[in-house]
Amino acid sequence: MNESKKAMSIDHLQQLDKIVSLSKSRGFIFQSSEIYGGLGAVYDYGPLGAELKRNIRDAWWREMTQKHENIVGVDAAIFMHPKVWEASGHVEGFNDPMIDDKQSKKRYRADMLIEQHIEKLRKDGKEKEAEQVKELLDTSGTRVGLCEDLHKIIMDYEIKAPESGAFDWTDVRQFNLMFKTQFGAVASAEDADAVYLRPETAQGIFVNYKNVMDTARQQIPFGIAQVGKAFRNEVVARQFVFRMREFEQMEMQYFVKPGADEEQYNEWLNKRMEWHKGIGIREKYLRAEPHPPDKLAHYARAAADIQYLFPIGWQEVEGIHNRTDFDLSQHQEYSGKKLEYFDQSTRDRYVPYVVETSVGLDRTILMVLCDAYREEEVEGETRTVLKMHPELAPITAGIFPLVKKPELQELSRKIEKDLREDYRVLYDEAGSIGKRYRRLDEAGTPFCITVDFDGLEDNTVTIRYRDDMKQERISADKVGEVIRSASKSWKPESK
Asked: Which of 45, 82, 204, 336 pairs as cysteine with 49 (C-beta 3.0–4.6 A)?
């Protein structure tokens, strides 16, 4: 089947609804507990989504550990001693300023409410007033005075509730984002018995720093990598899997000598940007955005976001941070355990600085889906296709007998069995070849193998390439070799 295509004009920034629909219909991502009406900002990964997630996770793990002899992995527990979160500052400072509409009983993040009001003013042509509100928001006070400042802005500019339209607000209050629970069979509801679901995976690395250094025979500089679940009780959680209450992080903390931190920070920022390009993300939709000095976290000497142009605008996918010696120093103080490093060659003793790379796995999945999504006109019909990197694709190859004949089915099953040793493959004999192609185009499958009667004579098959739909005859014995070569040489389209 020869196919001709024509690119269709589709606005990259208008794709989110289509991607959400495709994710549901093809089994990438489902709403959690959907048969009960769903659970807000929590999602399940279906058959294709689970494979895509595993492939991205494996690609990151190989990059960070297999390709670096001085980076090792850990898998820390989700539950940690409550003092961990006191030392890290999460108990005291991991808060969002919230305000409640008394009429609708809905809760809003106060700063975002003001930002939405600023955007409305601009759309209404009130640029001067918008700049006045923005200046007040930018200069709002510290955490001590922040709530009062935000409440005053809302009151002074009579910002109404988006849904009810009412102007009947509570005070602005700090809302801690950590999920709290009790630990043990006899736990009470008192805070003394409380433990938290971790809001980040980094602390599991920091508290294991000495264990890893002692057992893995590592010397500074070295890194510890981890992939794991984290939980944040986001009040304003939206935009599909971009912001969730249960999510997965891929983090690496790189321990360096003080004074070498700036060089390592810049090096890791460049490395991580190249990784995103390497998994097939188009360069024009990526950028590194440094944090201005007045917006840095209190523990950071430098920070930058690797951002992607999502349909919802430029948003962070990964953060690179120079965390100085804040984390280890805090845990050393709160635990009473020495976390210094002794350099035998120089006889120096110091608490290492840390350069962090932290990427959201779920956000990376959404980025891959957004970047891969295309609509093309093929012979008068619309083809929806995910042009993702072959090494990320949930299904690498589809195996099709041309028709349901025993001799074609037998050879197809043999090819399927051979490829299954190294790849995730799908055998499909239902419907026309064109319909089978379309199903796997939507799944992001880069290769389709069709077995016909000519192949029974000369031991050849037709391989069809997803991106340009070109077809060629190859030896049935060379299918795996052709797939491997084409996957290694694959480059994303610029469009």
From this structure: 45
| Whole-angstrom distance, CA of residue 444 vs CA of residue 55 | 13
Range of 403's domain?
395-488
Flag whether 382 is in a domain.
no
- For the domain that residue 42 is a member of, what is the CATH number? 3.30.930.10
Determine the pLDDT at residue 1: 52
The mean pLDDT value for 468-495 works out to 94
168 shares a domain with 262: no
Residues 292 and 204 in one domain: yes
Q: What is the DSSP letter of 336?
A: -
- Decide the pairing of beta strands 353-360 and 246-256: antiparallel
Examine the domain organization and report whether 224 and 337 are in the same domain. Answer: yes
The verdict on 304 and 216 lying in the same domain is: yes
Please check whether residues 71 and 220 belong to one and the same domain: yes
Is residue 185 one of the residues assigned to a domain? no
Residue 190 lies in a domain: no
Does residue 482 sit in the same domain as residue 364? no
CA distance 422 to 139: 56
Instruction: Looking at the structure, tell me whether residues 325 and 226 fall in a common domain.
Output: yes
- For residue 72, the one-letter residue type is V
| DSSP 8-class letter at 291 | P
| Residues 150, 45 share a domain | no
Q: Is 316 among the domain residues?
A: yes
CA-angle at 156, arms to 152 and 157, nearest 5°: 120
HEC sequence for 92-131: HHCEEEEEEECCCCCEEEHHHHHHHHHHHHHHCCCHHHHH
Q: Is pLDDT above 80 for 271? A: yes
Element (H, E) at 224: strand 222-231
pLDDT value of residue 14: 64
Weakest-pLDDT range from 82-96, 120-134, 380-394: 82-96
**Per-residue pLDDT tens over the stretch 11-44:** 655 689 999 999 999 999 999 999 999 998 999 9
Domain end, chosen from 144, 176, 208, is at: 176
For 377, half-sphere exposure in the C-beta direction (CA atoms, 13 angstrom radius) is 7
Q: Which residue has the tokens 């986001």?
A: 234
What are the strands of the beta sheet with 353-360, ordered from one edge?
71-73, 222-231, 246-256, 353-360, 313-324, 302-310, 286-290
Report the mean per-residue pLDDT for the chain.
Answer: 92
Which tokens belong to 303? 């920070």
Which tens digit of pLDDT belongs to each residue from 100-144? Answer: 999 998 888 898 899 899 989 998 999 999 999 988 988 886 666
Residues 6+ apart with CB under 8 A from 480: 418, 419, 422, 423
Is the omega angle on the peptide bond into residue 290 within 30 degrees of 0, that is, cis? no
Beta strands at 373-378 and 5-7: parallel, antiparallel or unpaired:
antiparallel
Domain total of the chain: 3
Provide the CB-side half-sphere exposure for 372 (13 A, CA): 29
Residues 7 and 403: their CA atoms lie apart, in Å, by 31
